[in-house]
Design a protein that fits this description.
By secondary structure, the chain is of the alpha/beta class. The strands form five sheets. The chain has a 14-stranded mixed β-sheet with strand order 1-18-19-21-22-17-16-15-14-13-11-12-2-3, sandwiched between helices. A five-stranded parallel β-sheet has the order 5-4-6-7-8. It has a three-stranded antiparallel β-sheet with strand order 9-10-20. Helix 2 crosses helix 3. The radius of gyration is 24 Å and the shape is globular. Belongs to the ATP-dependent AMP-binding enzyme family.
Length: about 550
């Protein structure tokens, strides 16, 4: 059995909670008066590190004594980005509660599914989202125990519907006399901290159980593996939502506990972001592919931004051409980060001095072990990544139960990502296991073809999926592109040229024999992952399979 690791041993407090790290550890000797949260629009230093910790104590005390949040209770948060969002996350954790961050973009039926999985005792909600929340709760079975609702951006309660939880007033006028619960030795790290929701690109979301030990280990894995990247001298722009695992575990926990000031935005807008970059000397920006493309195309991003050192791409691959264009435009480096909700979330990342190695997602973080396996879980040179470590989730929530585990008997979790490792320990991802196209017994990676398609100078985005031939004996790759070329005849000439461009670089069985089509936009989720099930060929195949047979 071949197991890949980072040679550096992981050193971290193995029986600590996230609250312990926030209150008792100071990873980078961050001064109390260093800004922790800066409002990206007003420029106000909303919290220093001293007032951040004090505010957590105030809100935690209120949650314990006034709201009645008990140890082990799940507390949902349904809100867009607020400056006090991370305060409430840490306050819930500090009283021994479990945070379930809900997506404010969910429709009521999607929200009802997430609520049914996490079973919150309380939900803290933004007032504007209350109608959606009430509608979602109304669709749940009568046996479902409804949570108490607390609106956190109003001072007025509505009896019988919700109670006001005026967080800003609590932070300003509350009492900071609070002590977290004490746990028996050997139990703190096992306590559940988060129920996060996976991306659900192929169906309804899954609830992912992350413990305090999972998150704490990943904070130290990042701190050691990317030593010097996130410090009090770093200023990070938050343009991802707090409810996403990158916002929840990344910004609320990783960056806060490492002392890196965060500049917050309610939503991603190029103009306000770029104004803030120069005003507040932002050094690092976390991006996903759609945001990266917008930074390349939007005229509001024109200018000089000398403070920017690094763009960190996450959630989905960014092709090398776009990465190079971003480097040239901003005079910075673009690093690739690899992780998943189930890993709390970081697995591997490029350091800023490793960007000259094309195509890699970096090396494993300390404390993570990885195998590369085939379908039978035997060692393979190119195969599926399976990972093991203290940051790997406890399991999935299943129909309200929190005890199921997807791990193998020896503790490895299959990621679904296909790739390989070079002789220096750098990881390369080829594709997703479930998205591989099988052409006459050969496996074709859509990502490989997409990477070639996007190198054509007139192609702006691309996606590939597989469909069966008319005999149903083999799959064929089908390609989709976006382009600025207009007109039917011109587009046909372009498609012919693009196919020649691709086919000259791949084996015969990898050729796009199912056709090449022009779309207005490639369907992607908010994190930038291609939604292949929404590509026209997949939709047509699904429609055909759903038509009842006639005898």
């Amino acid at each position: 059995m071949v197991i890949y690791t980072n040679p550096e041993p992981l050193n971290y407090p193995q029986d600590a909670t996230i609250t312990d790290v926030l209150f008792r550890h100071n990873l980078n000797d961050t001064p109390d008066q260093k800004p922790a949260i800066i409002d990206g629009i007003s420029g106000e230093v909303v919290f220093t590190y001293a007032t951040f910790r004090e505010s957590v104590r105030k809100v935690a005390r209120h949650l314990r004594h006034e709201v009645g949040v008990k140890e082990g209770a799940v507390v949902g948060i349904l809100s867009t980005n607020k400056n006090y969002y991370p305060i409430c996350v840490h306050a819930i954790l500090a009283v021994g509660g479990v945070v379930s961050a809900l997506n404010p973009l969910y429709e009521p039926n999607e929200l009802a599914h997430a609520l049914g999985l996490s079973e919150p005792a309380h939900v803290l909600a933004e007032e504007a989202l209350l109608p959606k929340l009430v509608a979602a709760l109304g669709t749940l079975p009568s046996l479902f125990e409804k949570p108490s609702l607390h609106v956190w951006d109003t001072a007025e309660s509505e009896p019988g519907v919700y109670a006001a939880l005026d967080v800003e007033s609590i932070i300003q006028n509350g009492v900071a006399d609070f002590q977290p619960p004490r746990y028996a030795p050997g139990t703190a790290a096992k306590k559940l901290a988060f129920i996060c929701f996976s991306s659900g690109t192929s169906g309804l979301v899954k609830g992912v159980k992350l413990s305090h030990g999972n998150i704490v280990s990943n904070i130290f894995q990042q701190s050691q593996g990317l030593r010097g990247m996130f410090t009090p001298q770093t200023v990070v722009a938050l343009i991802v939502p707090f409810f996403h695992v990158l916002g929840l575990a990344g910004f609320c926990c990783q960056y806060v506990c490492q002392g890196a000031p965060i500049v917050t935005f309610k939503r991603f807008e190029v103009g306000p972001l770029m104004e803030a970059v120069n005003k507040y000397s932002i050094t690092h920006i976390n991006v996903v592919p759609p945001i990266a493309l917008e930074l390349l195309r939007n005229s509001a991003a024109q200018g000089e931004y000398p403070s920017v050192k690094c763009l960190i791409n996450a959630a989905a691959p960014l092709n090398q051409r776009q990465a190079d264009q971003l480097c040239e435009k901003f005079g910075c480096v673009v690093t690739q980060w690899y992780g998943m909700t189930e890993a709390s979330p970081s697995i591997a990342s490029q350091r800023e001095n490793e960007v000259e190695i094309p195509g890699t997602i970096g090396r494993l973080l300390p404390g993570i072990e990885m195998r590369i396996v085939d379908e039978d879980f035997n060692d393979a040179r190119v195969g599926e990544f399976a990972i093991r470590g203290p940051n790997i989730m406890q399991g999935y929530v299943d129909s309200g139960k929190r005890s199921d585990s997807p791990h193998t008997p020896d503790g490895f979790l299959r990621t679904g990502d296909i790739g390989h490792v070079d002789e220096n320990g750098y990881l390369y991802i080829v594709d997703r296991a479930k998205e591989m196209i099988k052409v006459k017994g050969n496996q074709v990676a859509p990502a490989e073809l997409e990477a070639i398609l996007i190198t054509h100078p007139r192609v702006t985005d691309a996606a590939v999926c597989g469909i069966y031939n008319e005999h149903g004996t083999s799959e064929m790759p089908v390609g989709y592109i976006t382009t600025d070329v207009q007109g039917g005849e011109e587009q046909q000439l372009l498609k012919d040229d693009v196919l020649k461009h691709v086919h000259s670089q791949v084996s015969r069985y990898k050729q796009i024999t199912g056709g090449l089509h022009v779309l207005h936009a490639i369907p992607r989720n908010p994190a930038g992952k291609i939604l292949r099930r929404l590509l026209p060929a997949k939709l047509q195949a699904a429609n055909r399979s759903s038509v009842p047979s006639r005898l």
